[in-house]
Amino acid sequence: MRKIYFIVLFMLALSACKRKTTSVKQQDKDLMIQVKQEDAVDDSTKIAYQVRIFNQMKLSDQGAKKIIEVMAYGQDSSFYKLKGLEKIYPVGVVPVANGIKNCFEYVVLFDKVEIAETVGTFVFSAKNINGKTYQLRVK
């Protein structure tokens, strides 16, 4: 009886820790983009998106080094949300060193008030990689 009580208590504690997340993915022959929305942990005024960009292009060593350099710096203007035709840029973009080959990960932070009326279109502009723009519908 005591064992069952602790198992039930453990399962309740485990289910209470689960956070609501929404995840979407878009893929073509060059890139695969995954976006997962979460509330920012330390700040209730921000919405955080975990963004993973997988390079699927066959590149030479020189080309691969160029992509790594491009993705490491200056990605602030590559992410935005749409509010009608207006672009809402993030208040912060933090690169994450994840150790996955050909994967670039970022935490992108938006102000909740600023994007409250957006329709949920998250945009990644790969202008420095392949010139394409990827639009993903997130809730």
TrEMBL record:
<protein>
    <recommendedName>
        <fullName>Lipoprotein</fullName>
    </recommendedName>
</protein>
